[in-house]
Amino acid sequence: PLCCSLGKAVRASWRERRHLKRGVKRLSSLAPEVLSVFVPPFASREDSQAPSISGTALNKVRRRSFRKKREKPRMEAWKSPPGDPRGPDPEDVSIPGGVDLLALPQLCFPGGMCAASEPREDSVHFLVLTDICGNRTYGVVAQYCRPLHVGGSLLPSELGLGCFVVVKCVHQAFSAVRQVCSVLLTHLKLCKDFEVDNCIKDFAARLSLIPSPPPGPLHLVTFCSRLGAGRRFCCCPQVLSCLLTERRIVFFSSDWALLTLIASCFMVYLHPLQWQHTFVPILSGQMLDFIMAPTSFLMGCHIDHFEEVSQEADGLILIDIDHGSVTCSKSSDHDRDIPDVPLLPAQTFIQRIQSLQLYPELHLAHLSSSTDLNEGRARHRAWQQTLNCKIQHIALQLLVDVFREVKNHLNYEHRVFNSEEFLKTRAAGDQQFYKQVLDTYMFHSFLKARLSGRLDAFARLDLDTQSEEDRIDRMLMSPRRPTVEKMASRKFTPLHITHRRLVVSMPNLQDITLPDLPPKNSSLRTMDTSPCSSSSPVLNMAPKTTYTFKIPEIHFPLVSQCVQAYYTDFITLLSKAMGLLGPGDSLLLARYFYLRGIVHLTQGQLLNALLDFQNLYKTDIGIFPADLVKGTVESMSASERTQAERMPELRRLITEVMDKPGEPPKVDDPVKNFELPKKHMQLSDFVRRVQESGIVKDATIIHRLFDALTVGQQKQIDPDTFRDFYTCWKETEAEAQEVSLPAMVMDHLDKNECVYKLSSSVKTNRGVGKIAMTQKRLFLLTEGRPGYVEIATFRNIEEVKNTTVAFLLLRIPTLKIKTVAKKDVFEANLKSECDLWHLMVKEMWAGKKLADDYKDPQYIQQALTNVLLMDAVVGTLQSPGAIYAASKLSYFDRMKIPMAVPKTTSETLKHKINPSAGETAPQAVDVLLYTPGRLDPAEKVEDAHPKLWCALSEGKVVVFDASSWAIHQHCFRVGTLKVNCMVAVEQSQVWVGSEDSLIYIINVRSMSCHKQLTDHRAAVTGLVVNCGKKCSEVYSCSVDGTVLAWNVSTLRVTHRFQLQHGDLTAIRLHGERLWCCKFLAVTRALSPGWAEPKDADEGHASVLDFQLLPEEEQLWVAFKGCSELCTWSLKDLARPPQRTCLQDCLELSCMIRVKRQIWVGGKGLSQGKPRGKIYVIDVERKTVEKELVAHMDAVRTLCSAEDRYVLSGAGKEEGKIAIWKVE
Predict the structure, then answer these.
(1) What are 326's strand-pairing partners?
(2) Do the Cβ atoms of 773 and 767 come closer than 8 Å?
(3) How many whole angstroms separate alpha carbon 874 and alpha carbon 725?
(4) Computed over its alpha carbons, how large is the radius of gyration of the chain?
(5) Overall pTM surpassing 0.90 (yes/no)
(6) Which of 433, 578, 663, 847 could form a disulfide with 339 if both were Cys (CB 3.0 to 4.6 A apart)?
(7) For residues 432 and 423, is the Cβ–Cβ distance under 8 A?
(8) How far is CA 386 from the centre of its chain?
(9) How far is CA 715 from each of CA 457, 710, 724, rounded to the nearest angstrom?
(10) Are 866 and 843 within 8 A, CB to CB?
(11) Where is this region: Disordered (predicted)?
């Protein structure tokens, strides 16, 4: 902390004395000055010989105080008590936080400083100081009055004085620091004049002894307050609108303290968005010219200046805190009026705010009155924390409601935002708001966070409040056209009809053939966000749990011996508190490690500090102070550095922060706004442009689109053609969005069906009307009296013909569709549309057949994409060759001879999903992990569902809800290299072993990864859990032969073993033995002795994987480059193994045990072509029961789902997951 004493150190003049004697109550304003500055360290020269804090990087400032220079004032008795040694000559000191001492007096006395004949009440207000880099330092100012001395006599007059304290450690805990300063004022008023500086210095010294806790649930109870107290202020959507549009905002109040409090509250309500402009919540009277700045700012003034500011400056947003008004100063620009927050989010927000319980007396009325003062305070604090949590959550929900659909118009690969299309989806009354917001720095930073996949508070709430249908949409990374269910709801909500007119992009459509999803849970932590609900209750959720830690009392003289004793007691209390924590208290344990490391660092015990930071790195990397640790290592002496590097647990930490080459400075990747091309495009440029537009992402499909648009031309596309194609696509979307089906028609359709194409009005053999196409069927929307006539489902089509019918002298093109169930053939005189509909129906028919054969709904999704692209190509070219060009996009219908699905495969295969959906190309599925569901009333229903964890290339992890196969968590990263293994630990964690030698620990509930284990030195290749002991253990192995045993509660290594020659690829646990798979052998190691006998060897073949079957006492081993499995008896491993030959096998990749079967994945020949293949082997007969073929690429990984299903993941050529039924 930095403490300053401010005031006026001159005696009153003869004229002022005359005024005072005549009874004038107020003198003219005085110019305040900085009298003294106190900065750490506060060790005095008298105890410099005593043991003190070592001279580390934390203690470079030697000067303990600064006294303002005067022109050699004579020493007076009241200024220096007898026996008090003269301090050092004043000189400049380093001021922490970049505090400007010249401007400080005006901010500490914003209303001016003066002497008065009557004492004024003590007051406190708050300051926010911002440096040129945007870093904010928070301070508190305590003002009090002291008697004025004139000519050696004490007059009945008071002179205002102040004390400024930088409270960087407590950030924005304004209530807490107000209590701290109130205690200081009590002592200052009792001090004599010559004792003031000593009192302030003593206060600053004691405050400096309190370390700052990191963000989280831990609060420190200090000598006079609790650091972490909250504050509340209900926000106004109109003010948030001004902040989001980055206006020039000025707050006004008669209370200086409220200015900073209210302004800071709105900064919190914006979270995770950040105000990036000037932030000066308090302006003194001499600083009013700051409001003439032309750029965006947020400032605060006294209410006395309201009229002056409103008349002198143009275009300001004036917010009167005292009267609750928001006005705009004179402006000639009518477009700069205060924009309204979008209607539906604002209404929902107001309803939630109105349902808050803002009065503690009413909230606690049902409880008996407490006679214990501390109990009453605790109740009030709990009520306030609950209210604060709700207010902040409501503000965050408003931001989510306003910006939820932004992600639908982002292209993540090329960092493009299609603002024009986004604005088209907004209601007419909301256009002005969004136009202003889209041009702000704040929104640009928000887009960067979305494109970077940042899982912040906005992203988490967006995930928690989205519907099940939205979760399915996220598999496609794009919005779909409105379903029948949405059409039905839209018909009965007129407000919704006027609210928006959807004109959205639709890249990569999907045929949703999933079972009906379970209804939304009625958990207390969910709220109804439906726009048509009559009320929007506030979220009924418990506040985040907080914990307190009482620091040792600070009642001692501030000499080094006592300070060291205080730190020793602090560490003792922290260690005792850490010992009382349970296994699931890692969040609190990380905060204790952080605090103890800081205290050790302050003591100069660098090794102990680094050990605590190393434990913190493993427990919660999110609060790991990397810069502080790096500075500590740099300040170590050569002997200390050598000693630290001898400790294995510190060697890796030092490598992480020091030896790793620094990352090159990142270029600030801007977010581009989508623009139509202005130059001719070759293939590569055309692919990028189409992906940016959001029409299609799959590069293979775009290649076919390029061929279609360049038929008979030079292989390049001119800007006009692209513009016509883009316009045609958007117009078709707009027409489909405005389709309104009668209720009786919607009764015949599934709730998840969408109308993708409507023909013009045509004559058919079943009436006159329009032919409609959904992802499942064709039907006729009859004219006159609207009705529904079923034409065919794509599954039941038997034949599609394009013919002509004679009518007088004309031949009218006619489409004929024959179905399996009906004898009569449907005929439609489509005329000029006939050829196009013929192509589209055949493509959908072929795609549906493949989707049914391979149990893969993505085939129908791809067929839909092809069909809509055909329609856009025909509309773009409008030439005789347009149909031929569109036929280039007929992919499934033009497939020569699709690979037949074997009967065994068809019977066993249940479903296929695509974890790479929305990507530009398929990605290999490296590891799969199934975690069963759990019944926990405290969790949401969807969080309790079973999950499928899928590790893709470059450390990407996708999580599916295994009850519906919808994506639960789209994608987050664990490192940047390949994932080798995953295992579930204690239902709350997933451990991930990576090629980068780290073990990442994912919290299942929060879907976050803040823990890393760094003890391995090579790629982690295996993980296994031992749940037999009281405290769970996890065994891990790395390719260099290292085997580690981890205590799950403490994340400490309990055993370490090194296999000779390394090459360790997998481990298995059987009884008390840990079996290890090496490239050249399978070994076993006893857990107590960790011995290494050689058990099984098969020449010099490389061991790929192995499985233990304890009941059959068998060891099954697969070797690289071999097409057979070897089986040993556990009773006698010296005997030669039995061999099981795998027919047509080209390579093996993985192996698992399911019931009494061994499933082996790899690549083999099927119908003469290499395909991904799975062999199912009976363990008793040691024969192959089934050969399953459903992947285009090799099977890379297998996992079992409760022994009922087996899931297989394919290589990068296909990148899909197949679900197989186990018999």
Answers:
(1) 319
(2) no
(3) 9
(4) 37
(5) no
(6) 433
(7) no
(8) 23
(9) 47, 6, 17
(10) yes
(11) 61-92
In sequence order, what DSSP letters do the residues of 355-414 get, joined into one string? TS---HHHHTTTSPPPS-HHHHHHHHHHHHHHHHHHHHHHHHHHHHHHHGGGGGGEETTT
pLDDT tens-digit series, residues 423-468 = 988 888 899 999 999 999 999 999 999 888 888 889 888 888 877 6
List, in order, residues 6 or more apart from 879 with CB less than 8 Å away: none
Query: Secondary structure of 418-452 in the HEC alphabet?
Result: CHHHHHHCCCHHHHHHHHHHCCCHHHHHHHHHHHC
Residue 34 contacts residue 119 (beta carbons within 8 Å): no
With H, G, I as helix, E, B as strand and everything else as coil, classify residue 1025. strand
Q: How far apart are CA 1059 and CA 1069, in angstroms?
A: 16
> Which residues share a beta bridge with 547?
218
Q: What is the DSSP string of 786-847?
A: TEEEEEEEGGGEEEEEEEEEEETTEEEEEEEEEESS-SSPEEEE-GGGHHHHHHHHHHHHHH
C-alpha atoms less than 13 angstroms from C-alpha of 1139 in its C-beta half-sphere: 9
Lowest model confidence (mean pLDDT) among 427-436, 545-554, 635-644, 1119-1128: 545-554
- Token pair of 727 as six digits: 């316009």
Q: What residues pair up with 380 in beta bridges, in sequence order?
A: none
DSSP codes of every residue in 867-880: HHHHHHHHHHH-ST
Residue entry with tokens 């061999």: 1139
DSSP codes, 736-791? HHT----HHHHTTS-TT-B--EEPPPEEEBTEEEEEEE-SSEEEEEETTTTEEEEE
Tokens read off for 290: 């700051």
Of 439, 433, 434, the residue nearest 339 (C-alpha): 433
Average pLDDT, the chain: 79
For residue range 723-771, what is the model confidence (pLDDT) as tens digits? Answer: 999 999 988 888 877 788 888 899 999 888 889 999 999 999 999 999 9
pLDDT at 1195: 94
Question: CA distances (Å), 1059 to each of 1027, 1085, 1099, in order?
Answer: 24, 10, 19
Distance CA 1163, CA 1159 (A): 13
Q: How confident is the model at residue 196 (pLDDT cuts 50, 70, 90)?
A: confident
d(CA 1069, CA 1025): 8
Alpha carbon dihedral 1125, 1130, 1131, 1135, in 10-degree steps, equals: 30
Q: How many alpha carbons lie under 13 Å from residue 826 in its C-beta half-sphere? A: 27
Return d(Cα 2, Cα 141) in angstroms, integer: 12
Q: CA torsion, points 91, 93, 95, 100, in degrees to nearest 10?
A: 30
472 Cβ contact list (under 8 Å, min separation 6) = 510, 512, 514, 964, 966, 967
- Considering 190-199, 505-514, 916-925, the range whose residues carry the highest mean pLDDT is 916-925
Q: Which two tokens stand for residue 1067?
A: 């481990």
Three-state SS string over 680-691 comes to: CECHHHHHHHHH
Contact 66, 93 (CB under 8 A): yes
Phi-psi region of 508 (alpha: psi -120 to 50; beta: other; left: phi over 0): left
